Amino acid sequence: MQPDTGEPGQPGERVIGIDLGGTNVQIGVVEFGDEPGYRVVGREKRKTKPDQGVETVIERVAKGVEKACELAGIKPSQAAAIGVGAPGVVEPHQGVVLEAVNLRWDEVPLAERLSERLGTPVYVDNDVNAAVFGEHRLGSGRGASHMLGVWVGTGIGGGLILGGDLYYGHFLTAGEVGHMLAIPYNPAGSRSLEHNCSRSAIVERLVKLIRSNRKSLLTDLVEDDFSQIRSGVIAQAYRAGDPLVVEVIEESARLLGTHLAGIHSLLSLERIVLGGGLVEALGTPYVHIVAEELRRSAFPDKIKGVEVVASRLEDDAGILGAAMLARERLGDPAYSR
Fold it and tell me: Does 13-133+316-329 match 144-311 in CATH topology?
């Protein structure tokens, strides 16, 4: 999605943003003008294919960058910088992917490798951090000093803005809300927030209940092929008032809201931004349920005024956030590339 931001009047600084996922790579050449003016002037999307190894993935990313730049009418070396949002644990100062399970990567110096290949400074961060940073600088988080972003999709990821910038913590892993225990005495594999509130968890529960003889529109919508249940199909059934889908979605939204209330009580946040495929598909009703439950449980009363909003950048949050990170870190001696 390309938000209506007001395009720059004249060609401005161009920065490449890359959203590197375990399945797909999304690339955008972003042209920045007067704040907050920007537009994506070249795009490319490719399959990641992590099973083919690190070298192949890096080359596929590089080729995708070259294609997006061709569409934008520039060479990669003419971009001011490249930003990458990568899954897993990232050391952002050196641009090393320390561990990315869905890519099968350990200790991959991605910034160095891509910079050598493309002749442009490269900066790397965690993918959800990048998306949250994008929302903070350009989207629903704009102007908030203290903000939590929670992305609900296949899994659940998070990013934390404190004092107007990303907060990493001592071990560089701050914001991993999806792996916090939500129901600690459940059986192993069903205890975390991600195990209970992600789209994958919701689909698993829906299928289990349908197979135990609960009725649902989903059966007809996917013609009995439950592997085809995605966020859009769930949203379609939810909007149609399907009792089973409404029950499961609203239970998961309330659990998420209760859990976020604890985080908010600890950190006293100004704004919480919800994003990811499930949030985009379900929209305002889902956000309202999460917000209602959060305000019910948060303490003290003063903090119940926290803003809970949906992502405005939606699917572009990753590439725009990665581009913004690179743009701000260019020339900063704390970041080597």
Answer: yes
Q: How far apart are CA 143 and CA 164, in angstroms?
A: 8
* Euclidean distance between CA atoms 64 and 68, whole angstroms: 6
CATH 3.30.420.40 assigned to domain 144-311? The reply is yes
Asked if 242 and 276 touch (Cβ cutoff 8 Å), the reply is no
For residue 141, give Cα distances in angstroms to 92, 138, 148, 205, 319.
Answer: 22, 7, 9, 32, 16
Tens digits of per-residue pLDDT, 40-54?
999 999 999 999 999
Tokens of 131: 């998306």
For the stretch 124-141, pLDDT in tens is: 999 999 999 999 999 999
- Over residues 159-190, the pLDDT tens digits come to 999 999 999 999 988 999 999 999 999 999 99
| Domain residue limits, the chain | 13-133+316-329, 144-311
Could you tell me the two tokens for 50?
A: 């992590």
* pLDDT, tens only, 255-267: 999 999 999 999 9
251, amino acid identity: E
Q: Which of 17-21, 33-37, 82-86 has the lowest mean pLDDT?
A: 33-37
Closest CA to 130 of 291, 327, 280, 268: 327
β-strand 105-108 against 96-100: which pairing, if any? antiparallel
pLDDT, tens digit (0-9, with 9 covering 90-100), for 260-299:
999 999 999 999 999 999 999 999 999 999 999 999 999 9
CATH number of this structure's domain 13-133+316-329? 3.30.420.40
